[in-house]
Amino acid sequence: MVGSKRVFIKIILNGFKIILQLINVVTILVLLAVHFVIKERTFWSSLFFYALPLPVIAFIVLMLSIVLTKKWRRYNLIIASLLLLVWLGRSFKLHIPDDIQEKHLEVVFWNTARRNTFETALNERADIPDVMVLVEYGKENIDELKIRYPKYYFYRSDRELFIFSKTPLYIESDKTSKFNTSVINFKTAGINFYAVDATGSPDVPKAWGLTYINQSIKESKNTIVLGDFNTPYESIYLKQLKKNFNHAFSKKGNGFKETWFYNLPLLCLDYIWVSKDLKILKAEKIFSTNSDHSMLQTVVKR
Questions:
Q1: According to the CATH classification, is domain 95-301 in 3.60.15.10?
Q2: In the chain, where are the structural domains located?
Q3: Residue-wise pLDDT tens digits, 64-87
């Protein structure tokens, strides 16, 4: 009787182990499929794709190994290690910057998280850039800025986008989609710019905002596109930009390219894209505790 009881318990335990192993395998396959294959092809897969960057997936794989046998735990550790290596290969950049001269164009972008001013942005840096674009910009009075900085040029849209330039600023268009993705086309310093702020609302499919952005970008020569795209670098909706432009940080940056969250390298949401006829001399990511987004700086040879 005791022996049969032990056999029964052993069968139950073995069955439980098999169930855990199946859950482990299915979970890993689904996570990998969403990240590498399915991505944002459906609204629901997009939610998982944005919420589960590779470091998070690797962490989940490690946590699953806790409830597995020693043999299966080894497989999970190998998978997690490979995922981290892939992530490091894609995210960590190392470059030698070129010599910077006064004539070169310095461009800065920052999501100010609605609690910072133009002067806060200036204080994050050692000098005043040639062009600066801020999104989620607060209610700072732009007329007062014009009085304090009479030699410079400013523009503030109704949708919390702010533009600063040392040279005359010409606004070609300022458009916002019905789902609150904004694109400003402006010219300054002899360069064509597109300033972008994609909607971050979770109930609006990313495809709508990013398709609107792609359709709004008419020029791909002598052009810089910069902004908060609210989508990771691996997004299928960034293919058009990758085809026509160089991602500044990938070309000349050092460190992790991810710009969010509070300098933890989780997601790359903010970008400076430079047309391929312009030479990128330097790219830098500047960490700040004043915003959950890092500041981006790029120096371009015109």
A1: no
A2: 2-92, 95-301
A3: 999 888 888 999 999 999 999 999
